[in-house]
Structures are given as structure tokens and as C-alpha cells.
UniProtKB/TrEMBL annotation:
This is Uncharacterized protein. It holds the Pfam family CBM_14. It comes from Photinus pyralis (Common eastern firefly). One of its GO terms (molecular function) is chitinase activity. Belongs to the glycosyl hydrolase 18 family. Chitinase class II subfamily. InterPro entries: Chitin-bd_dom (IPR002557), Chitin-bd_dom_sf (IPR036508), Chitinase_II/V-like_cat (IPR011583), GH (IPR017853), Glyco_hydro18_cat (IPR001223), Glycosyl_Hydrlase_18 (IPR050314). Residues 43-97 form the Chitin-binding type-2 domain.
Amino acid sequence: KSVDLDDFKGLCGKKWPLMSLIRQNYKGGKANNVASYVPTKPYGSCNSDGLYSDPRNCAHYYICRNGLSYHLSCAAHMLFDPTKGQCDYIEADMCRPGHSVHFPNTFREVSNFLRYKAAEEDKSPKVVCYLTNWSFYRKGEGKFVPEYLDQRLCTHIVYAFGSLDPEKFVIKEHDHWVDVENDLYERVTSIKDAKVLLSLGGWTDSAGDKYSKLVSDGSARRKFVANAVSFLRRHGFKGLHLDWNYPICWQSNCKKGPASDKPNFTKLLQELRREFDKESPPLMLAVGISGYKEVIEAAYELASIGKVTDFMSVMTYDYHGSWEKRTGHVSPLY
């Protein structure tokens, strides 16, 4: 969701009611599966196998194994809950540094609370927040800037939007005055507790045939990919979120685009993935896809796209709107 549409100033009660509810219910259900991997180098000595909270920092804890202790960190936005012996999405006022929980059994049983491979942290739930540059123009209480964001709420932030140059087929700022002159690029990428991606496209920027021309030309794709890496690194983004609306179904009209858009879009994503993986650390790659079944079937090679993207965002909104005579839910609740 776009975070600037939540009650971020608490005008109707507590701040961030919707995002807080998402964080509490969606993320909280996966607590067991997001602990850090066990480091190979011992931190010190200990007496009894088990898990122990760090007396100085509730976001850290120790595991004792065969007389040696290992210092671990909880995943982003989590604290060690000594009542459960695991990292969880608990409030800071529930933090009890120095409190220990002891498991007298073997390390194998203790390991039920931990993941051993750092890569598996990527399987933890994501709360992806959209931050729009046009919210900067709102007047009064409606204006939103990155500094208003409660950084604990989001694991990833998608900043909307970048634009595709229709002649050079490279990324450019959508609004230079907001993005660069008012430093919104710098201000949003300075948020350290979330991975910030630049979203390219959107409804307005997807008008016309420029994205179709880009994906259909191998040399244009190579130029775009090289420029994308440079652009993202220059402005401090951790990755790219492609939001073309949509291959074949240009702005939802599936009679506008050529059938070649579908495989060519996959080619672009595959080429981006190869170059992004060469970076250190690798850049993230995500894609926004339509929430309409007929568009999904026409526009995307989902199996192939899923192999090269870190995540896909389904646009589950605008199911009803001002073009209809009767009011309906804008987005499905489940």
C-alpha cells in the first residue's frame, strides 16, 4: 500500500493504524523462521546449552552450545522475546534485556528456534511500502515526506516513480524538482532499516509504446540494463521495481500491444538479473503485475519471471472506481 494514505499523523487516533495492523498480524505469524544463522566463530564461553538474551541490546541474543557461546542478531524490526526463546515482532516496552531462557536439552532441539542459512532469511515475510513522490505536493496535513515514515513498519520501500526516457530508453527522474532538487531520492534512500527500491513506470508512464520498443530491441535492452545499474548505484537505491502497465495489455487494453511483449519482457528481467547479481551486494529486482486474471494470463510468463525476481507485487486495487455508477470495494480484503 502507499504509506501516505495511512493516518501517519494520528489525526483520527493512534498513528499508522493500518500499517501497524499489517505489521502485527502479517509479520507476527512467522516469528520462528526469521532468526539469523549461527556464526562459526565463538563469542565466548558459557555453562549450559540454551538461548540467552543480550543484556545490552534486545535485538541480539546468545546461543550456548557445548560450552561456547555465539552472538546472534534478530532479523530487521524484531526483538528477542525471552518468554518464547525466539525473535518476534514485540513492542519495545516488552523488551527485557538480560533475561535468559534456558533449554536444557541438546543443541539439536535448540535449533528448532533458529535458521542456519543466512539465505533463508529472504523467505521471511515482507511488508513492502509504497512511497510516492507526488505526496510531496499535498497541502497541509496531507503532505508526506520520507521523514514521516515510522521505519519499524516496512521491510522494503518502493519509491514511485522513475520514468523511461522515450528516446534514449534509459531511466530518468520522473520529477527532477522533487526527486533531486528537493532531495527525495537522498532522503528516502537514507532510511537504513528497510531496503529501498526505485519503481519504474506506473500508469501514466506506461502510456504509448516506449516500453514495448525497449523490450523488443536487444541492443536497447543492454543499454537500459547498464544504465539501470549506474542510476540505482548513483542514487543509493538497493534495487529496481519494474511497473510497466502492462506487456501486451497497454494500460489494460490487451488489443494494443504485440504478442512479442510477453517473452520480451521476460528477456529484459533475465538480463537485469544477470547484471544485478554481478554487483556487490547484488541489486534487488522486483516487478509489479496486474491483479486482473485476463491481464495476468496475457501479459506474463510467471514461472520464468518468478525465477529471476526477488518478489512480485500484485496490484490488488482499482477493482471499482469513479467510472462506475455504484460504490464497490476498491481492493479485495482477502
